[in-house]
Amino acid sequence: MKNKNTNKKTEIIDSHVIDNSSKRMTTNDGVPIHDNNNTLKAGERGPSLLEDFIYQDKLAHFDRERIPERVVHARGSGAHGIFEATADISKYTKAQFLEKGTKTPVFVRFSTVAGFKGSTDLARDVRGFSVKFYTEQGNYDLVGNNIPVFFIQDAMNFPDVVHAVKPEPNNEMPQAASAHDTFWDFISLMPEAAHMSLWIMSDRAIPRSLRMMEGFGVHTFKLINEKGKATFVKFHWKPRLGVHQVAWQEAQKISGYDADFHRRDLWEAIDKGNYPQWDLGVQLIPEEDEMKFSFDILDPTKLIPEELVPVKLIGTMTLNRNPENFFAETEQVAFDPGRLVPGIDFSNDPLLQGRMFSYADTQNYRLGGPNFHELPINRPVEGKFNNQKDGIGRQDILKGKVSYFPNSLGGGCPYHALLKGEKGFESHNEKIDAKKIRGRSPSFADHFTQARLFYHSQTTPEQKHIISAFSFELSKVNDIDVRRRELAVLYQVEPELAIAVGKNLGLEPSKTLDELTLQFARANHPNYPIKAPKPEIMTSAALSMATKPGQGTIATRKIAFLVADGVSKSSIDKLRIPLQKEGAEVVLVSTKVGMLSFMEGGQEEIQHTYLTDASVCFDAFYTPAGDSIHLLAQEPDYIQFINEAFRHCKAIAFAKQAEDLLRLTLISAKNIDNGIVLESDGEIKDRFITIMKGHRIWERENERKVAV
Ligand code: HDD
């Protein structure tokens, strides 16, 4: 589908789009090219000639096609959209784009952190959730993640955590994976990482879709109102499609079948007009309440439980347009949490403070110089006016002879707001009276209470997945001391968790932290371990994916109808029509591409087959009636589809006539459950939809020792 959704920002993009159709080929200088197949040679069998500027023009550009990939978050997918502010929060902020009713163009980039640019989408990893708001008062970037806390408290440790998780320097292995020695060596020595390591070992780290994950600004920021008063704020993105995951075994298989699974899903959804939406929420904390909690709100390894400060929804973001060109837009977009618009300010979170340097610095390197703001994707919608000039790749043509301030020759322009009694960005007038110190606040020293809160807030299946994930990762660690050290950390979070993981490693967890871990912790907090303050709450429903609101929809979920020639069209439509009414996507999977013949006569085109597609890429399954069932009985990949669906706790429906096929699968009378929806028990439709809304049939896991 052609990009039809336009806004002030996409108009800028569109003005740079080149359309080659019906154009004659030229060199970069616009010279028409006569022959693009042959180099210029001295004779038919002779050497090539240096004067072949057409060849040189082509190759010199090709030789420079690659730019450095992002040092982290290299793998990403982007989309354009619109943010609409829906609530009046003028009491708290003067930010123009947050004024109720204001619509602001956005560009969003989702990413994985550790893998290279070409790595799988399905890595167990944090997902980046970066939003560039092209506001009337300049660009504002909310550069967050799908996990509300971070591994480390101080930006000084950022290169270290990244080096630890990236492939090991001697052999460049493993790709896009944290299951290796260096990562767990680092994590086990940094007790502050305990909280985030639980999140990353939870299902949050393997989303079903980029459209089905939450986003968080992570740090505490400040909103500033007209009077200059500050209110602390945490930002949340709440997906309208609920928060869903894939199973780890599925993730590994999907990586083989379709390493672009998330990228494709986002692209196709937008292309089909299924525009994903998120509500923007804020947790507002009056300045006076800064020290009110049992944790420090400036510590990025802590979240503010929604039970303590509810999330107020203030706007909605809709992604409604795919990029025209991946490189020009998704690759060249330059995010920077260190640049603000009036109405928003930083807090003193030491991780956030450190980020202010890193992003602009990395863009200068990655995008080759200081003019990356002029790339179409990065240009502010109302333009930029200052005396900065020249530099590599400069595109703007500054008029006149004045490029300094103050000036009289240019009429004093561009003027700064103050001179004309207008308003520009003003930093919050915070009073600071302190001694310089290279160290950490004692209020940052409790590393386990919130990790425990997170673990205790999970449902039983979710806890099982966490145990499985730690067991998987630590089994891949070769150094036994690292395994032991991490188990000791887990014991501090929750003894049961450590014991369960330890069983899978054949180790008994130590009840006390390893000496080396203590030594590092004491370097930051000399009296470590401290007595942790009493937490306000012991569990928080908002931390579990299973109990999230908005889970009750099956819109855009993919349901495989398993067919072959001779299938009954009426049996298909009996379920296809009601599922489509719910917004779900029905995909016919057959034995071959081309035309599928129906039992009743007539045909339909098939794009998906047992050869090209895999069970793990779908959410639910239905085998309709018809003569097709004889063919399916002889199709091992069909049986594999059903067995995998069963293994991964998904809903599977059978038309009455197809129920016989069950005999060939792992599903027996003994293990049949309410996720196996049989027509012989009555109308399928309602039961199937209800089961799908629950996402998975978790009871199936109870039968197994190790979770999916
Ligand atoms: Fe970062 C990229 C998110 C801490 C340094 N970061 C980057 C991206 C996201 C985040 C989503 C990808 C942006 C894009 O799509 O282009 N980073 C976070 C979050 C953090 C965080 C949520 C903590 C709460 N980051 C962080 C620290 C530093 C950096 C402490 C350095 C001091 N991050 C970078 C970077 C990157 C980056 C090296 C790599 C590519 C880029 O900036 O543009 O500068």
Describe the structure.
This protein has helices spanning 8-16, 53-62, 158-165, 181-189, 194-200, 248-257, 261-271, 326-331, 350-366, 449-456, 460-475, 480-493, 495-505, 515-524, 569-581, 628-633, 636-647, 685-693, 699-702; strands at 75-85, 103-112, 127-135, 138-145, 215-216, 221-224, 230-239, 277-286, 312-321, 344-345, 558-562, 585-590, 594-597, 603-606, 608-609, 620-623, 651-654, 676-678. It is of the alpha/beta class and 708 residues long. The strands form 3 sheets. Strands 1, 2, 3, 4, 5, 6, 7, 8, 9 and 10 form a 10-stranded antiparallel beta sheet that branches. Strands 15-12-11-16-17-18 form a 6-stranded parallel beta sheet, sandwiched between helices. Strand 13 and strand 14 form a beta hairpin. It is globular. It binds CIS-heme D hydroxychlorin gamma-spirolactone (HDD). CIS-heme D hydroxychlorin gamma-spirolactone is lined by residues 70-73, 76, 109, 111, 128, 130, 143-145, 150, 155, 158, 218-219, 300, 335, 351, 354-355, 358-359, 362-363.
